[in-house]
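Protein data:
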Amino acid sequence: MSELATHETSAASFALSAEQEELRSRARALVEREGFAERSLEWEQTGEFPWANVKALAGEGLLATTIPVEHGGNGGSWMEGALVLEEIARACWVTAMASLGEIGVQSQALAAYGSDEVRAKYLPQIASGDLICSVCITEEQAGSDIFSMSTIATDDPDSGEVVVNGGKALISRGDVAGLFVVYVRWSQDPGMRPIGAVLIPRDTPGLTIDEGRETLGGEKLYALSFDTCRIPASYVLARENGFKKMLTAFNGQRCLNAAISVGLAQGAQDAAVAYVKQRVQGGKALAEHQGIQWMIADNEIEIQSARQLVWRAAAAASGGFPNRHDAAIAKVVSNEMALRVTDRVVQLFGGHGWLKEFPAERFLRWARYGPLGGGTPQIQRTAIAREVLK
């Protein structure tokens, strides 16, 4: 194990078990062996889904980290999922986002709330890397205001099927996903009560996906439309009053989003440390200048602090889903930390930080997504304050 990894663990309030240490080391070794960092800019520039990396993760059993053993997975906890995603994000944000659903909320929502048929059919395919899932919440007029969503699901008593109409916007992995976890309304009644979720396979008649929109991080985002999409009743994850259940599952996404922020901040710090040691200015390495040392120290303090909060949220899940309060705190701190750290790293690289051939600029761009996905810091602060004040 590296000196860095040993230092991280010795400082932890949530000490890792020998098995967790081995998992983290195995994830790091695979990421380095497969050249995730070296190909990260390529995935961005081409906009291609990083299938080679995802298949490598599946081959190592890492994509199946949190999937139940009975369905082809390793039965790991949210802590194991956070450890693996941090190591991936340390090298390649594109691949971390590509594997987030399989290690996190999509697979866990299926495992916790899916029918026996759904679990048996889809979870082994997710574990093997043969099936990519996408979660669909956002609509053109319903982002943070989730209660304004208009996609609706209705029961057809004649066929016993569920019919879905509506659309979603800014959806990740629309180009490759074979299964969509779609949040829906079960009636036009206002508020939380009618909101639930269903599964819609890619080949469902009536489902159309647009060509995608370019993003700052290279990943395309897609719009989906549902025109009388018919699915079996067994593909329902949550009916009316199911929003709280699905929101609980989404706490896992917030926790793992935070782990990705910690990972990419650590990757940026690693790159900065290597750079300032070899870059000479004023007759000595940048690392020998006190002002540079303080910037490196500030990064380390913030990364270590955020990591503790992510581990706290993941460890407290105890086999279920992370607590909303803990996950919200971890997400806000980690997202905002990553923005500050990666901004400092660009400054540490100086003019080279502005060049795409150096890693600093891409870490800064990657960090900007964290506060946008999985609930903004503003929404999380509202939830945190309500918990404190109730």
